[in-house]
Design a protein that fits this description.
By secondary structure, the protein is α/β, with parallel strands linked by helices. The chain has helices at residues 20-28, 63-66, 71-86, 111-123, 133-137, 141-149, 165-178, 195-202, 242-247, 273-287, 305-319, 329-332, 339-353; strands at 5-13, 35-36, 50-51, 100-105, 156-158, 184-191, 233-241, 254-263, 294-298, 324-326, 355-356, 373-374, 380-381, 386-393, 397-405. The chain folds into two domains: 5-247, 3-Layer(aba) Sandwich (Peroxisomal Thiolase, Chain A, domain 1), CATH 3.40.47; 260-408, Peroxisomal Thiolase, Chain A, domain 1 (3-Layer(aba) Sandwich). Helix 7 (165-178) crosses helix 13 and helix 10 runs parallel beside helix 11.
Length: 409
């Protein structure tokens, strides 16, 4: 018998802020967090000079607990610490009884540590290599560091699936609890900012080059969009089996109603609207609801031509109506492995608020995009019962999460 899975806590580290009150204020003021990066000027061959950095100062954790953490793992661990406190689980023995696991992902590990390895090959010296270099650089650095920091002894799932790392972690954590293997799962994703991340997309001519007007980009779904902007951050959700949450009188933020994922089997970097649509339909089937029940969609919204067009048509064809849609990437850029978790948590909080952020900068919707209800202006008040959060990644990896408003039971 499958279990019900609820969200009992969450947090994020983002360019918009690190607590919901601050983030909501910035969303309502339509704050764009993209800036021109002076340190990118030296890369003459890189077209974009833009990014959305986070003002993050690592907390004063014990050195022995953080020596194997680079910036990405520090953001993930701090974010998880906040989420655990938010869930009322700080110091609880439940975390260490084998029934609490972690599912966490990122695109890669700490770039500085990777540079130490690479310098060995170019300098023929090992000066930069220490006992923690690999721990900081490995792609699973967030998941294992979270596990050790909080002394978790349950299952570990590491989802290093690029831009679906965070959403895939949530989906797999949900299935782990639903199938009875764990009572609680810490799920999320993180990525740190590096010029190399921007260069990946720059070589594909997929980055925004509005270097003189950073506040006007990205602009997903807009006919004047010219590409994405890379950001950074972390997002963590605490997922819990429903009866377990009720037994400890936990606050419930939302219920995970459905999850769908698949791969395109088509192209490493080019999206396929047909298989994207199937992923959304799989989530709807898992939620056992009709498509018209979805009241809002948080779109992946990368502001790339092929991505926006494919995603919008996949969404419209799956939901069969002009559903309200917006993307948070217009505010904080593309946070890569973190985006699925940050966007899921903020979508849940907007659902609880009864207000959904608009697509800033998206003033003139591209006629090639599907006929969705792209939220504009001052945002939209919606009494939503079900919302959907979608993410898509290199490799043709597609994910869709459906959350049910706990206040609308």
């Amino acid at each position: 018998m499958s279990k019900r899975v609820v969200v009992t806590g969450g947090s994020c580290v983002s360019a918009l802020g690190q607590n919901w009150s601050e983030i909501l204020t910035n969303l309502k003021s339509k704050k764009n967090c993209v800036v021109r990066m002076e340190q990118y000027e030296k890369y003459a061959q890189m077209n974009t000079k833009l990014a959305a950095p986070v003002n993050f100062t690592p907390p004063d954790y014990p050195r022995q607990k953080t020596r194997g953490m680079g910036r990405v793992a520090l953001m993930a661990t701090y974010c998880t610490d906040c989420a655990i406190k938010n869930a009322g689980l700080s110091g609880n023995a439940i975390l260490r009884n084998g029934r609490c696991g972690v599912a966490y992902g990122s695109s890669m590990g700490n770039v500085d540590a990777l540079l130490d390895f690479f310098s060995m090959l170019t300098s023929d010296r090992c000066d930069g290599i220490t006992a923690t270099t690999y721990i900081r650089s490995m792609p699973q650095t967030c998941a294992v560091n979270i596990g050790v920091f909080f002394e978790l002894t349950g299952r570990i799932i590491t989802t290093n699936t690029a831009c679906t790392s965070g959403s895939m972690s949530i989906g797999y954590a949900y299935e782990t609890i639903k199938n009875g293997q764990q009572d609680i799962m810490i799920a999320g994703g993180a990525d740190e900012l590096s010029p190399t991340s921007s260069a990946v997309f720059d070589t594909l001519f997929a980055t925004s080059t509005k270097n003189e007007t950073p506040h006007l980009t990205p602009r997903a779904f807009d006919k004047e969009r010219d590409g994405l902007v890379v950001g950074e951050g972390a997002g963590t959700l605490i997922l819990e089996e429903y009866e377990h949450a009720i037994a400890r009188s936990a606050k419930i933020y939302a219920e995970i109603a459905g999850f769908g994922t698949n791969t395109d089997g088509f192209h490493i970097t080019q999206p396929n609207r047909d298989t994207m649509q199937i992923a959304l339909e799989l989530a709807i089937k898992d939620a056992d609801i009709s498509p018209d029940k979805i009241d809002y969609v948080n779109a992946h919204g990368t502001a790339t031509d092929k991505g926006d067009i494919a995603e919008s048509h996949a969404t419209y064809n799956a939901l069969k109506k002009s559903t309200p849609v917006s993307t948070l990437k217009n505010y904080i850029g593309h946070t890569l492995g973190a985006c699925g978790a940050i966007e899921a948590w903020l979508s849940i909080m907007m659902m609880r608020e009864g207000w959904f952020a608009p697509n800033i900068n998206s003033d003139d919707i591209d006629a090639e995009c599907a006929n969705l209800d792209y939220i504009q202006g001052e945002g939209r008040e919606i009494n939503a019962k079900y919302i959907m959060s979608n993410n898509f990644a290199f490799g043709g990896i597609n994910t869709s999460l459906i959350f049910k408003n706990w206040d609308s039971k």
